[in-house]
């Protein structure tokens, strides 16, 4: 941790925060959770957050402290397969048995610190990666829908940090908009399902 975080602090970080309306995703997961459980896999929100095109590192709170195993080639995996892989990594993490194969090769990291608490964060990039996202707790909050009606929404904040030598703010903003759009309308992920 000392070596990695000292190297990380040499990176000129910029931060970018937004909120995402997970109301439809909360409904979808509640429909799929039982189906996944019947096939022996616990389905949380993380597999939906992870579904991109990368080896996604996941900050994991373990008895040994913070570890970042990664789910490899998420673009080739279904949400169910990502959930199964996450269950495997969590079981190994709790048992202190994560090995070098699982702990190396990440290309982008997500830190779901919201599963413990908190809304915003300023996450530190894990070199040689160039960006990281911290996810806040999902909260039920009042929001206006497109018809200007007050609705009950499930809102999660996301705080990105990026290496400003490699990524500019507009690129991060476009990426964040795309990522949020998939989660706000999770059925859109079905279009690109492999
Ligand atoms: N909001 C509300 N509820 C949540 C959330 C959020 N964000 N995330 C998970 N949950 C729920 C989840 O749905 C589970 O509920 P049920 O399925 O309904 O029973 C429950 O909380 C437990 O989920 P769990 O944490 O076991 O599984 P998940 O796949 O979401 O997360 C994990 C796996 C390995 C990421 C997580 O267990 C973990 O270790 N999180 C902490 C990561 C951490 O330490 N980050 C800090 C790194 S340092 O980033 C840093 C800048 C600083 C702050």
From TrEMBL:
What UniProt keywords are attached to this protein's entry? Acyltransferase, Transferase
Q: Where is the 2-oxoacid dehydrogenase acyltransferase catalytic domain?
A: 51-190
In which compartments does the protein localize?
A: Mitochondrion matrix
Q: Which GO terms describe its cellular component?
A: mitochondrial matrix
> Does the entry feature the keyword 4Fe-4S, yes or no?
no
One of the entry's Gene Ontology molecular-function terms is: acetyltransferase activity
Q: Name one Pfam family in it.
A: 2-oxoacid_dh
- Cofactor(s) this protein requires: (R)-lipoate
Out of the domains of life, which is the source?
Eukaryota
In terms of Gene3D superfamilies, this protein maps to: Chloramphenicol acetyltransferase-like domain (3.30.559.10)
What is the protein's name according to its record? 2-oxoacid dehydrogenase acyltransferase catalytic domain-containing protein
